[in-house]
Write a structure and sequence with these properties.
four-stranded antiparallel beta sheet; 23% strand; alpha+beta
Length: 202
């Protein structure tokens, strides 16, 4: 079922295809989306995807937070490369589109609710409504916008990255572990504690 948040995300933006401005046609599409979109909630931390799997779903975060990370077996270390919160669209677009193995682990934090649609149902929709292919392609190509990846710029001091993260996603620190945030900012948890403490004193 299409939630109010997801409806607004899909149908109130600037990238709405011209044909979807026709109310009757839009209602037909919504009827089909209601048949195919599922919602699931997680009360505890859960791994949605492991590296090596082929991504077969496109997700929307109704509430909560998730992270995408890679794992270096030689260093036995995780590296957080994406953080998603409420209102985010996410997937591994390369794996979803080309049906190749993903390098990402995707983890949902406690009290997260997701809406999702399978790749096969996306294909059904694009066959039934060819004009929405451009919208689907745009959504998938631009999922990186919602992953906070711009904060990975190592030329910006860690404190500035943290400040920017707090501006763009103020809820993250309440939803995501400090270890995950430190990994995302490419610093140690100890360094994160230090810069928070030092700047708090200022």
């Amino acid at each position: 079922m299409l939630s109010k948040k997801l409806y607004q995300f899909l149908f109130t933006g600037d990238n709405l295809p011209e044909k979807l401005k026709d109310r009757g046609l839009r209602d037909q599409l919504i009827e089909q989306l209601n048949l195919h979109i599922k919602t699931i909630s997680y009360k505890r931390t859960i791994l949605l995807q492991q590296a090596g799997m082929i991504t077969d779903k496109l997700y929307f975060v109704e509430c909560g937070a998730l992270r995408g990370y890679t794992y270096d077996p030689e260093q036995a270390k995780e590296k957080t490369i994406s953080l998603w919160t409420t209102g985010s669209l996410f997937t591994d677009s390369t794996s979803l589109i080309h049906q190749i193995e993903s390098e990402l682990f995707i983890e949902a934090f406690p009290n997260t609710e997701l809406s999702y649609i399978s790749r096969s149902h996306l294909e059904e929709l694009s066959n039934a409504f060819p004009f929405i292919r451009s919208l689907i392609s745009w959504l998938i190509r631009n999922e990186i916008r919602y992953a906070n990846k711009r904060l990975l710029d190592k030329s910006i001091p860690a404190w500035e990255r943290l400040v920017e993260m707090r501006k763009t996603s103020p809820e993250l620190e309440q939803l995501v572990s400090r270890t995950a945030i430190a990994s995302f900012l490419n610093i140690s948890p100890q360094h994160l504690s230090k810069i928070v403490r030092d700047n708090y004193k200022k």
